[in-house]
Amino acid sequence: MKLLAFIANVIRKLFTNMSEALLKRKIYKKRTLLIKGTLMRIAMIKRRQSVMRKHYRSDIAELMRIGHNSDAFAGVGRLYVYENMLLSYEFVERYCTLVLNQLKAMNDECPGECKEAVSSLMYAAARFGDVPELGEVRSVFFDMFGNSLESFVNKEVSCC
């Protein structure tokens, strides 16, 4: 009788450990896919922004060549906005890559080298409306860490 209870207890622990491992693997895979999706979206947006920047530069050069300097200066303002947006996307892309590389180490506590990256991604989610995956990343990390990372935010990530 004791042997059967012992075997049942061992089997119960084994299945519990297996189900916990499967659940952790599923959560890890979901987070990985979410961050990779964010990286793909950012790459697409950066390509589009890069093309727009190239066109603005050629338009500004053409306006200056034909003597429409006031219009060219207005175009420089738009070009400056696109340059800042591209830099912001590059920040977010670097942070996503860093978090993706450290994702296995993130269980209940954020590793020290990822605190700025995670908190900045959470901050950027509200400022990048054209990257909806960032909102999902924010909710995942908020569920994991709450507001404990607010002091590590890099506010240079803001979009404009």
List keywords for this structure.
single chain, about 160 residues, mainly alpha, about 0% strand
User: Would you tell me the overall average pLDDT?
Assistant: 79
The tally of beta strands, per DSSP, is: 0
Number of helical segments? 4
Structural class: mainly alpha
Query: What is the helix content?
Result: over 70%
* Cα Rg: 23 Å
Task: Characterize this entry briefly.
The chain has 160 residues and is mainly alpha-helical. It contains four helices and no strands.
Description:
This protein is mostly helical and 160 residues long. It has four helices and no strands. The protein has helices at 2-65, 69-101, 115-125, 132-145. The longest helix has 64 residues, at 2-65.
Topology:
Blueprint: H1 2-65, H2 69-101, H3 115-125, H4 132-145
